[in-house]
Every structure is written in structure tokens, then in C-alpha cells.
Specification:
Blueprint: E1 2-7, E2 14-19, E3 24-29, E4 35-41, E5 44-54, E6 57-63, E7 71-76, E8 79-85, E9 92-98, E10 101-108, E11 128-129, E12 131-132, E13 148-152, E14 158-161, E15 165-168, E16 174-177, E17 189-194, E18 200-204, E19 209-213, E20 222-226, E21 235-238, E22 244-251, E23 256-263, E24 269-270, E25 288-290, E26 296-307, E27 310-322, E28 336-340, H1 341-345, H2 347-353, E29 356-362, E30 367-373, E31 377-382, E32 389-395, E33 399-408, E34 414-421, E35 432-438, H3 444-455
Parallel strand pairs: 8-10, 11-32
Antiparallel strand pairs: 1-2, 2-3, 3-8, 4-5, 5-6, 6-7, 9-10, 12-35, 13-14, 14-15, 15-16, 17-18, 18-19, 19-20, 21-22, 22-23, 23-24, 25-26, 26-27, 27-28, 29-30, 30-31, 31-32, 33-34, 34-35
InterPro entries: 6-blade_b-propeller_TolB-like (IPR011042), SGL (IPR013658), SMP-30/CGR1_Lactonase (IPR051262)
Organism: Linnemannia elongata AG-77
Keywords: Hydrolase
């Protein structure tokens, strides 16, 4: 008897499996545990993947290589999956109830006489794969390759912007169109965030403004924030009480970045250079996020270098700054590095892909999801502690350059990633894509919005 088990990062369940004396492999897993197992039967790969669907249901996908057709089944509650040598039988699927759990028996045909080569213990993949979200979020078709600024409202609906439009990703409804509003050609939408009153803040990186967008009102929106001293803004984040807003910005060609904030609808204030340690420079600041308690501000920083005449990213980190009770930088506080993104994914791979950090979002338990532009992945890492700790890398099936992400859906646990699609060739124009993955905890933004909405 051989056995092995693997606890998957960020999930409450453990996937366990074992071989038996009758050349059978048994898997046990909970419905909310998303996993992917790969191994070989002879020269034929077998992949077993569970996809949580919510309400205690999940889809089990078996991918069995060239000689075995794929099959999908949906099950409920706790499940035991048994795979065994079929000895020439056709693939059959039966389902019986056993000790309160549903038992599924699958006979593979034809499997080599000896199945001793089925070595699952060396094949469990800790990193997960997201799924194409275009069917669930068809509104992505209304956006172009400059897609950015994902946001969620209290109902769990997801939104995003491109340089001209602000769109509901489920329905394709355009909530704000800069052309229809007759805004200047320099306008470039880059960020969005929902407010508890149902309105939205939409950032204009080109015109240095943030608008308050009201659903159903298609005229020129009210300007909520503006400053000619802003580099953009590129992204923004809102505190749990909805009264504090923080902004990020950058200028690519000059390696510059800035961060600003507004408290209680007050004036914009810049977070000064005095908040950095000697020798520490926050350069291009892009993603920005707040901790759940509002006492830490997170910001990305990336540095370019000129390589063969072109500017290319060469390093990237996420820094944290302690805030006081009012939301201002705490007295004497300095930005400190939480995680080195190039080290987390492997420096050689990061340099090869041109990894550039973009948007990031926290869940309600302090797990950060960082979009890795150019790298076709999202990094999940734990912010609980003085320094961050890598949890896992999530591979994206349709997106090459993720720009932003947010958690939504009915339970707030669907991580939706937007960005530039993977291309078949370099000449193909940039297009907007959306991927999705189920995560263990609801997002911070939707959790805060629902709390505020319940108070109103």
C-alpha cells in the first residue's frame, strides 16, 4: 500500500489518495477544494481536476490523454473517486451512496497490464490553473486591449474599464463612455471602484481626474478628485468605512511613481518621500491596496533598465506603509518591502517574460492576489506578518498580460482577472480577455461594501 496527501494553499481541505493491492487509486476531497492532479498510465497522461460550483456542488473533469476521451460529471458533498485497472473493459461511470458520501467508480480501458507506473505522489501540482471567464462575463467583448481597473459592487457584479468605457462584465452595459460625455481626447480610464451608495469612482489617468459615475446617467459625470500634480492616477483603493481613498500613479519613461490620499472627502495629500528608508526608492507605483483594518497601505514598485536600447522591467516588489487611526502615514513610518515579486516567481523567468506588477486585491483573510503583467499568472501571497509569504502561482489560460483583478460573485469568492489576451503571433492586435478562479475567501472590497450597505 502506498499513500500520499497534499494540502493545497489557501484551501481548507486536503486531497488524499492511495494505491491498493488491486491496482486501484482512491481520491478523497471536499467539494470546496479545487485541485489538479496529473500522472501517467504507461505513456498516457491522466489529469483529475475538481471545479467548485458553489452550494456544495462541483464538477469533476477527467482528462485522459489521446486514447481516452474526456468526461465531466457533477457531484454533491464529500466524494470518493476510485480509478482502477479496467482489464479491457470500456469506460463506465457508476455512482452509489456509501457512508453518507457519494462514491464514483471509473474503469479505464485499455490500461497496461501493470499499473505500477502510476506514480501520483510525484505529480501533484500545487499551483492552480484559472479558467476562461468569457462565457460567464461576456461583457468583456465591449472592451479593447487596454482593459484595466476591475471592480465589484455589493451585489457581486464585476466591472472593468478600457481607455474609453466603463462596462459591466456580466451584461456588457456601458455605464460611462468618455466619447459620449464629450471629454477631451487625452482622457484615459484606468481604474474603478464601487461605493456603497451604488455609485462608482472611475479614474482618468490621462486627464488627472477621478469621476463619480452614477448608473443610468450618461452625461458628463461629476469630478470627485483632480490635481495637475498627479502623475495619473493609475489605480485606487477605498477603506472599509468608505471615507478614505488612496491613489497610485506612475510615469513609465521617467521611472517615477507617486501615491496620494484623501480623508473624509478632504483635499488630496501626497505621501512624501520622507516615508522611504535611505537607499529605498519606490519607482513606478502601479497597484495599491489597503489592509482589512485600514492600518497598512500596500503599493507595487518596479524598476526599468535600458536593455539593447529598450526599457525593460528588471525588478519588482510590493511595499507596505503603516497608517495611523485616521488613515494618514503613521508618525515615523517608512515603506518596507513585503515581497520581492521576481524572487517569488523566479528571477530568470521574470526577466524573460518582462514581468511588471499591475493591480492587486486583498481577500478578507489577508491573502493578496497580484496581477503579473506579461507573465500570464497571478501570485497569491500572505500579508499576515511583517513580511509577505508566497502562497501559490495561478496560471491564466487566456490572458498573457493581466492588468487587474477583483473578487465577486454571490459569495464574493470568484476571482476575476482581466488583461490582454494571449496571441498566436506578434502582429495580432491586443484584445481584452477575462479569466476566473474560485478562491477560499471573499474579497475585502465586497465584504466591506456589504457591511456598509447593511448599515444604510
Amino acid at each position: 500500500m502506498e499513500s500520499s496527501s497534499a494540502a493545497f494553499p489557501g484551501t481548507p481541505s486536503t486531497v488524499s489518495f492511495s494505491s491498493t493491492e488491486h491496482h486501484r487509486w482512491i481520491f478523497m476531497f471536499a467539494a470546496e477544494s479545487l485541485f489538479n492532479i496529473a500522472s501517467r498510465v504507461g505513456q498516457h497522461k491522466i489529469h483529475v481536476e475538481s471545479i467548485p460550483l458553489g452550494n456544495g456542488r462541483f464538477r469533476l473533469r477527467i482528462l485522459k490523454g489521446e486514447r481516452f476521451p474526456s468526461i465531466e460529471r457533477e457531484f454533491t458533498n464529500r466524494t470518493t473517486l476510485e480509478i482502477r485497472d479496467g482489464h479491457g473493459k470500456e469506460l463506465t461511470v457508476t455512482s452509489v451512496w456509501l457512508l453518507g458520501a457519494q462514491r464514483v467508480i471509473m474503469d479505464f480501458w485499455p490500461v497496461f497490464q501493470s499499473i505500477a507506473a502510476l506514480l501520483f505522489s510525484a505529480a501533484v501540482q500545487a499551483d492552480r490553473m484559472a479558467h476562461d471567464g468569457s462565457t460567464r462575463y461576456p461583457g468583456v467583448k465591449a472592451l479593447i486591449g487596454s482593459i484595466e481597473g476591475a471592480s465589484v459592487d455589493a451585489a457581486g457584479r464585476l466591472y472593468a474599464v478600457d481607455q474609453q468605457r466603463f462596462v459591466n462584465l456580466q451584461t456588457g452595459e456601458v455605464l460611462f463612455d468618455t466619447k459620449a460625455a464629450k471629454l477631451p481626447d487625452t482622457t484615459f480610464l484606468a481604474a474603478s471602484r464601487a461605493l456603497s451608495n451604488g455609485h462608482f469612482l472611475v479614474g482618468d489617468a490621462g486627464y488627472h481626474k477621478v469621476y463619480e459615475v452614477v448608473r443610468g446617467h450618461h452625461g458628463k459625470p461629476r469630478v470627485r478628485f483632480q490635481s495637475d500634480k498627479w502623475l495619473q492616477p493609475n489605480d485606487m483603493t477605498i477603506s472599509a468605512n468608505g471615507k478614505r481613498v488612496y491613489f497610485s500613479g506612475m510615469r513609465w519613461s521617467e521611472y517615477k511613481g507617486d501615491a496620494w490620499y484623501s480623508l473624509e472627502r478632504g483635499p488630496l495629500r501626497r505621501i512624501t518621500k520622507e516615508t522611504t528608508y535611505p537607499g529605498v526608492t519606490l519607482e513606478r507605483i502601479n497597484g495599491i491596496e489597503l489592509s482589512g483594518d485600514g492600518r497598512r497601505l500596500f503599493a507595487t514598485s518596479a524598476r526599468n533598465e535600458i536593455i539593447n536600447g529598450d526599457q525593460k522591467p528588471q525588478s519588482a516588489q510590493v511595499y507596505a506603509l503603516d497608517l495611523d487611526v485616521a488613515g494618514r502615514p503613521a508618525k515615523g513610518a517608512k515603506w518596507r518591502m513585503m515581497i520581492d515579486l521576481y524572487a517569488a516567481v523566479g528571477k530568470e523567468a521574470a526577466l524573460k517574460s518582462g514581468l511588471d506588477p499591475d493591480g492587486m486585491r486583498l481577500d478578507s483573510k489577508g491573502i493578496m492576489y497580484s496581477a503579473l503583467y506579461g507573465h500570464a499568472m497571478v501570485l497569491a501571497w500572505d500579508t499576515n506578518g511583517r513580511h509577505g509569504k508566497k502562497v501559490e502561482l495561478i496560471k491564466l489560460p487566456t490572458i498573457q498580460s493581466p492588468t487587474n483583478l477583483e473578487m465577486g460573485g454571490k459569495d464574493g469568492r470568484t476571482l476575476v482577472v482581466v488583461g490582454i489576451c494571449k496571441k498566436k503571433n506578434a502582429e495580432e492586435e491586443d484584445k481584452a480577455c477575462v479569466d476566473m478562479i474560485r478562491v477560499p475567501n471573499a474579497g475585502r472590497a465586497i465584504t466591506d461594501l456589504r457591511k456598509r450597505s447593511n448599515r444604510h
